[in-house]
Automatic annotation (TrEMBL):
Belongs to the methyltransferase superfamily. Arsenite methyltransferase family. The lineage of its organism: Bacteria, Bacillati, Actinomycetota, Actinomycetes, Streptosporangiales. The keyword S-adenosyl-L-methionine applies. Its EC number is 2.1.1.137. It catalyses: arsenic triglutathione + [thioredoxin]-dithiol + S-adenosyl-L-methionine + 2 H2O = methylarsonous acid + [thioredoxin]-disulfide + 3 glutathione + S-adenosyl-L-homocysteine + H(+); arsenic triglutathione + 2 [thioredoxin]-dithiol + 2 S-adenosyl-L-methionine + H2O = dimethylarsinous acid + 2 [thioredoxin]-disulfide + 3 glutathione + 2 S-adenosyl-L-homocysteine + 2 H(+); arsenic triglutathione + 3 [thioredoxin]-dithiol + 3 S-adenosyl-L-methionine = trimethylarsine + 3 [thioredoxin]-disulfide + 3 glutathione + 3 S-adenosyl-L-homocysteine + 3 H(+). It comes from Nonomuraea coxensis DSM 45129. This is Arsenite methyltransferase. It is an enzyme of class 2 (transferase). Residues 202-356 form the N-acetyltransferase domain. Keywords: Acyltransferase, S-adenosyl-L-methionine, Transferase.
């Protein structure tokens, strides 16, 4: 069967693949659990000869079948890999788009899948998969009934579990769109997410415990400029960690050395339910690494992650003399609420603080 005949046979799938991934010429694509390879062949046509599409499958028989289909179709820009989606046999930062159809719900280690997808994606790379999800946790009977009606339902995650796993891996702009309703709260869904964008050789990822010393060193270097905060000494890691929300902490790192070059984190402003969507953030970029767009990339990622997490207002305080921080925040939608005049003493000098805030247009509307 010729390439175009195979594509035509799967025209419905072709429409789905287009809708899910919006592939562009020249991109590198990875299909998780590629089966017979139809989505790989469809994607290969979309990315053209300058692009590459990898299909990954744990079944050697499926890899062979997909290879035969690719040969029949005359597709030269595809490669089929034998391996698992929990340990993807590709180096980091090599893929522009991860796609998948009806596979992730089958995984025994669901947290590993988004973590691996995040690793292999380049900054700014996209995750666009179709899968089966549940609107709420299913009891065993409902799960079995759903499993008899539709494949891919046996290990399906709830929408919230899917979102949480993607966020924990470091993805932002997470959207789960329900498509078909299969009853019992089981739905087909298209899941989109993005790995935070940042300049070449850099990466933004969630902050880890093992980053502690470097995060605090960047913090101290920022405090030493005298323009970042009234504080003069960075806290202990325990103090830092206890006061920050666990889920909204990111670092910008050198992708080669892993060195932490900047970080952003947030605290809750109040325990009152009415302020549940209001956080106060701090962002620090090592003074030796400014003007590389790291602050802008970190803050953009943080805003997107905060909105994903349901935050509607991000607030902070900035010294009026810190023009770079002020203009960065204003460029990303923060406004100056007012000036707290001579509100605190810093190295013996009374200083003003500008209160800034960003009200989301998409969260808490
Ligand atoms: C339901 S089929 C979907 C195939 C293809 N995506 C499609 O839409 O036609 C699931 C595929 O995922 C593969 N698979 C299941 N678990 C996997 C894993 N952990 N790692 C890699 N492949 C896996 C299976 O071998 C099978 O080919």
């Amino acid at each position: 069967m010729a390439h175009d005949e195979i594509i035509d046979r799967y025209s419905a799938l072709a429409r789905a693949a287009d809708a899910v991934a919006e592939l562009r010429h020249g991109e590198t694509v990875l299909d998780l659990g590629s089966g017979g390879g139809i989505d790989v062949l469809l994607s290969a046509r979309r990315v053209g000869p300058s692009g590459t599409v990898f299909g990954l499958d744990a079944s050697p028989a499926m890899v062979e079948l997909a290879q035969r289909n690719a040969e029949q179709a005359g597709a030269s820009n595809v490669r089929f890999l034998h391996g698992t989606i929990e340990a993807i046999p590709l180096p980091g930062h090599t893929v522009d788009v991860v796609i998948s159809n009806c596979v992730i719900n089958l995984s025994d280690d669901k947290a590993a899948v988004p973590a691996e997808a995040f690793r292999v994606l380049r900054p700014g790379g996209r995750f666009g998969v179709s899968d089966v999800v549940t609107a709420r946790a299913l009891d065993e009977q409902a799960r079995q009934r759903a499993g008899q009606r539709i494949g891919c339902a046996a290990g399906s995650l709830t929408v919230q579990e899917y979102r949480d796993l993607l966020a924990a891996a470091g993805f932002v702009r997470i959207a789960v769109t329900l498509t078909a309703d299969h009853g019992d709260g089981v739905h087909s869904a298209i899941v989109h997410a993005v790995k935070p964008a940042i300049g070449p050789g850099l990466e933004i990822r969630p902050m880890r415990e093992s980053d502690a010393a470097e995060v605090l060193a960047v913090y101290q270097a920022g405090l030493d400029t005298g323009q970042a905060s009234f504080e003069t000494t960075a806290p202990s890691w325990e103090g830092f960690s206890a006061s920050r929300l666990p889920h909204l902490r990111y670092v910008a790192v050198d992708a080669g050395s892993g060195e932490v070059l900047g970080w952003v984190a947030a605290t809750a402003v109040s325990s009152r339910p009415v302020y549940a969507g209001v956080v106060e953030h701090s962002i620090y970029v090592h003074p030796g690494c400014q003007a590389h767009g790291i602050g802008r990339a970190l803050l953009s990622a943080f805003v997107a992650a905060a909105e994903d997490a349901g935050v509607w207002t991000i607030q902070s305080g900035v010294f009026p003399e810190n023009a770079a921080s002020l203009s960065l925040h204003q460029a990303l939608g923060f406004r100056v609420v007012g000036t707290r005049e001579r509100v605190g003493r810093h190295h013996g000098v009374w200083r003003d603080v500008l209160l800034i805030e960003r009200r989301s247009a998409v969260s808490g509307t």
